[in-house]
Amino acid sequence: MSLNQRIYLSPPHMGQEEQQWVQQAFATNWIAPLGPNVDVFEKEIAGYVGADGALALSSGTAAIHLALRLLGVGAGDTVFCSSLTFVASVNPVVYQGAEPVFIDSEPESWNMSPQALERALSAAKRAGKLPKAVVVVNLYGQSADMDPLLDLCDQYGVPVIEDAAESLGATYKGRASGTLGRFGVYSFNGNKIITTSGGGMLVSDDLEALEKARYWATQARDPAPHYEHSEVGFNYRMSNVLAGIGIGQLHMLPERIETRRAIFEAYAEALGSMEGVEFMPEASFGQATRWLTTLTVDPQVAVTTSGDIIRALAEANIESRPVWKPMHLQPLFQGCAYYPHQEGHSVSDRLFEQGICLPSGSSLTETEQAKVIEIVKTLVCGGMTHEIA
Fold first, then answer.
1. Spatial distance between the Cα atoms of 35 and 171, rounded to a whole number of angstroms
2. Which candidate, 133, 135, 257, 320, has a CA 20 to 30 Å from the CA of 141?
3. 282-302 tens-digit pLDDT
4. Residue 297 forms beta bridges with which residues?
């Protein structure tokens, strides 16, 4: 490895099978959107996660948008959503003219707090305006604690969309992450555990709803010899070429999960005993993929901060990032309601202030990981970083 070669947070990791499927698309001239690779990819994703059906789309954002539309979300409605997430989980709520209400994380899983959700639903019922949907986001390769969240939503008659964009391959009590809500969403963006360059998938056991979403995603073209349209549609379908990449990537998913978990274990072994350092816990209810290795650095205990570490890694040409900035702190959503885990105690605020995502790609070498570890260890121990070969 060159001394100046950049170490990325989570770069794409291609194998050999992806090229075979793409070459097949070229050989058969299935370059346009849709085609046999799309059909195979949908069938294999549904089979892998145990859903009755799947719809391949241009992005995970498109999948969330269609799920919200299927649930009838519109102008004047509210949608509850995890606050600690990427903005793509929330933007489709705004597309539909609805208003997001943000729910804090719990410390045990970093995902949506049942305690906060219960307060939010109770307040909404008292106000006579229950949300049209709850979007539960599964962060960094780990499922939320779905049973209490689903029980609450069932109690109030509110459907759940499971944003599993970051958690394909994770499990919750033996079930696949993304299959516990009314609809599940996966992302195949370039930094995800498997990628199609860009793309997403909507999964559900409601095949009739998926067919309606399929219709909307192909510009809502009515069956006619000419171009007939009776509803607004979207150009949301995945291309046959990208679906070919996805098929090959999916076949490598178990190996990619094993590798990422091993990378996490190496970080935890090297850094986990250091004062002020705490890794994202793996909840007892399932298995995480460790898509990204994330940790917090408590500046009251350690002699450094998360920002110091991120800057030191950047100086060494190593990509790292803070944990997601919560949506309730974003300028875009000023004025939206927020329910913390406990009154006066926001878990997601603390995670953002102290959290770091370390390089976690399945192609990360032991030498590259050792370089990251040495820099972090040096700062946490109070020394100055030094040049590492």
1. 30
2. 133
3. 999 999 999 999 999 999 999
4. 277
Lookup: tokens for 45: 């994703």
Res. 384: pLDDT tops 70: no
- Counting every residue, how long is the chain? 389
pLDDT digits (tens, 9 = 90+) for 38-70: 999 999 999 999 999 999 999 999 999 999 999
Task: Check: pTM over 0.90? Answer yes or no.
Answer: yes
* CB burial string 367-376: b at 16+ within 10 A, e below: ebbebbbebb
- Residue whose entry in the numeric block shows the structure tokens 């909840």: 283
Q: State the Cα–Cα distance between residues 271 and 279, nearest whole angstrom.
A: 9
pLDDT band at 34 (very low <50, low <70, confident <90, very high): confident
| pLDDT tens digits for range 96-132 | 999 999 999 999 999 999 999 999 999 999 999 999 9
How far is 167 from 163, CA to CA, in rounded Å? 9
Distances (CA, A) of 318 to 256, 270, 312: 21, 18, 9
Are the C-beta atoms of residues 216 and 69 closer than 8 Å to each other? yes
Residue-level pLDDT at 1: 44
Query: Do strands 53-57 and 200-204 pair parallel, antiparallel, or not at all (unpaired)?
Result: antiparallel
Query: Would the pLDDT of 351 be above 70?
Result: yes
Cα dihedral 161, 87, 69, 102, rounded to 10, equals 60
